Batch of 3 targets.
Target 1
Amino acid sequence: MIHVCFPLHDQSGLYSKYEGVAICSLLEKTREDISIHIICDKTLSSENKMRLHTLVEEHKQKIFFYEIEINNVFNKIKALEKFTIGTLFRLKIADVLPTNIDKVIYLDADIIVDLDIKELWDVNIDKYMIAAKQYAENNYFLCKQNIVGKNKYFNAGVLVLNLSGIRSRHDLFEESIRFFSKYPECEFADNDALNFIFYDEVLYLDEKYNVFTSSLRKDKRIFSQCIYHFAGDYINYIEMEEFDILFIKYLFKTPWGSNQHVFAWVVEKLKMKEEQITIYQKLLQCGKEKKKIIFGASGILRGKILSNFSFTHDFDYCVDNNNQKIGCVIGGLKVYHPKKILEEKINMFIVIIVSKEYCKEIRNQLLDYGLNNEQIFDGIKLLTESQGGYRVN
């Protein structure tokens, strides 16, 4: 029996289809008996859960669900401005999977399996805690801090985990909490935690087990019989590569592939694109007469959004609830307390929120200040789909 684990956090209810496609591709390409283990939270709807059940049962395989709740433990991690809480679910694998399961393959949801997963399952990791693809980058937080050596950083989107070894030598979840407490500024959340915890206990996998589609697009490489990983990438419907075609192929084989569901998906994408265009039109209409204020002094999302603009010419100043940031100049913008907004003339300014995690709370704060919704913009909607900020998920 091969055991494969996926995470699933689906706040919008629209992301489950991607996991369904990943599971479908896995089941279609593998002849062995497989147990699918889904670590999820309350955001997984009963409807989507039933669709996943149907998909796996149609392939005469087994599926198990493990509902957890870890939001309150990790709510201060900087990296969650870029990633959802679901990325941290893999840190609970050793705790929630039955103790008689000694080994498991972990896969992110943005995966297409184009090989028999038994190849990966047969990799011997008895002497290691984890097997992963080496990621030849040395400019990440852990590498810059000399915590992980050059060319030793690995990507955690595809993993083989020695659960018996991890349970006997580590407390993965508790060690992760200590890591985030010590390094809250880490860029890649649990990916950084896993690199830190399992440093020198890693078996590096062949590239074919975790091929980044963005790299294939950039280098114009052709790669088949592999595991495609849409890390930071998206389905290109205009200039489709082999992996884009595979996504569509498997989508139509899932319960989300009916005409009704595909039509709703396309309509949702069109609505979001229309909304994005409307936001940019409103920003252009502001001209020089209205001030443009950024709410949020730091974070990955802020950097991505402001990279699309000229810092000093397009925005007047920044506000932030963090008193330690007030008075600083960050990215060419001086940071003030949010109440400075109350000094501005009514309807003569707009505010762009650049915090993904606290967007709702900040919007409510601004509404309490007397602003109206027409003055407040969700910054993530200024990003394109390829930048990771405007995909339907």
Note: The domain at 276-387 is CATH 3.40.50.720 (Rossmann fold).
Target 2
Amino acid sequence: MTGRFNKRAILKRTLSATGGLRLLESLPTWNGLLVLNYHRIGTPDGSLFDHALWSATQEDFDQQVRMLASGFDVIGLNDLRSALDDLRAGTGRAWQSRRFAMITFDDGYLDNFEQAFPVLESHNVPGVFFITSGFLDDGRLAWWDEIAWMVRTSTRSQLELSRRWIAAPLSLAADNREAVISRLLRRYYRITGHETSAFLDELADATGSGRAPEGTADGLWMNWNMIRTMHASGMSVGAHTVTHPILSRLSADEQNLEICESRLRIEHELGDTVSALSYPVGSRDAFNDVTRSALSQNGFDWAFSYYGGHLRARSDLDRFDIPRVAIESDVTLEDFRSCCALPHVFARH
């Protein structure tokens, strides 16, 4: 207990207990666009990688998609402009409900194809898959998964990095390793692009695990044939950079390269235009005016952030900061229903 009441949690419990949430779900309580973001579908099951990336089991994802399909117009990237125009006009002529939802995935994990794609097809709704092109091409381990891998495979009892990274030693007791991974990821988010290799190399030495060997990421990512199959079936595909850096930590030339090359690579494989990008990490400080300029110069129409929120009807649109809500493994069906019924309360960061 923190001693501080969580008003949103109290409201959610009250609505659920009184049946108010069911009533709200049946009423046109809001109009707008709610964009949900997932990463992985399934369960960690002892994985050495970052457990926080699993968003839902396939069963939970199926329930969530069923709920969205019954109460929203679920759209893909090709529908986005029409939906937003409809919201701004306030007519509702082009769409059934003017309550729009978009289901998005980041990175390009294999389970997106094996677990998520069949669910989306079974409910006849589109999904949007933002692909980190370099992961598919090189089969490399993502930096967050490598950080988790180094901590989980360490045989040491304590982690001590130079003070430039972490001020005090960290216990590697079994029940503390998840917290250590989280701490290290938060530190990584704050360093510049030129420091990342030094950080990972020092962590490799400090854990005694070394850098993850070649082949560690085998079977982790989709391949381009899978991406083409999903695209041909009506799924949308967008860019998520080449190597998944925090863009705002890079120079203008480096940002432009990550943004431009990811788009060109995906377009080459699909033979179709890529109109949207989702920002790696996606916090407010993960992109900047330099990023926006690079997006504009490279012909992107949309970019998606990742710090909560939704678009209300007739609200001012920032096409390079379309908000998304994180769906994580601790989100219950009740949480999900609350977010869909009252996103202005529950979809905030």
Note: Confidence is low (pLDDT under 50) at residues 1-8.
Target 3
Amino acid sequence: MFRLSSWERVRRAAELAEPDMVPVAPYIGNHAAVLAGIPIDRYCTSGEAMARAQWEAWKIYGHDILAPISDTYYIAEGFGVEVDHHPDSTPTFRAPAVKELDAVERLEIPDPHRAGRMSVYLEAIRRLRDRVEDEAPIRAPGTGLFTLAGHLMGTERFLMEVALADAEPGGAAEGALRMLLDKTTQALAAFEKACLDAGARVLGVGDSLASSDVISPAMFDKWVLPFEKRLFAELNEHGKQYGALMLFHVCGNTTPILESMADCGAQLLELDSKVALRLAKERIGQRVCLVGNVDPSAVLRNGSVADVERAATQAIRDAGPRGGFILGSGCEVPAHTPRANIEAMIRVARNHRYPMDQ
């Protein structure tokens, strides 16, 4: 009985093939800090602490993808967004960087090595790469370009401006918003490339604000899809030298935009728990590798071990046959999720070997 490394297992799944067993990658961020006994405010501001927490979590769980992540403001701070830091908690939004649309033109693309807290994540990736080497891939964080634009302007104001520009296309407001999205795309690309150079081999882009729970599918195709395509084309080109994989995640029920998401250019599509995996497998499973989608709150955080085992088994039945699937959490694992529940999820995946019954 052969056994692949985690990196080989993930790559085979990304190629829509059958690895030795179902890969498993719960999206563990701040949970790693709790597991390692590191205050979250230190974890999200120290590359050394973040790497140490992720290393400890990997030693305990043995999951297939490490993910040094915490909050979503580390790029936005580089643009001038103000946040508040709290004891043993993630930062929260205080003030935008863009108060009027005419200020967009003056925004400068931040240096990922010096601006905001991007350097914290780069250091964590470098430290993890030195320890893990090629055994398992490291997943870079990536606050999505649409979500990042919301951070820069303030989410409610940004969505209002997008809605107004959508109703009156071709005006100055649309031009300013497209310039804003162009700049967030550039900033995200620069950060993700720096993550690749630091040692990441899976580039994650999470665009929660682009959810079908927030904007319509038509707005996604108009305001998000063209920029995501450009972003992933650029990252795929840069990632060739590393053999890197791209992962795209949008929170919520993204069933109406599955085909558009699959068009973006990422090899891995991480789906939230609101999406029916069987349906997604039927619609786009021959185009992209699906990742997901055990409910992180109701099941992983608040469910029993038996609940986790049932949900993980059902996810594998729905999307695992014929390969092209990675068992994961629908979104980030809550910080105080019981260790036994994560272990149960991983155990279920390890017990499902290929070939499996359809």
Note: The radius of gyration is 19 Å.
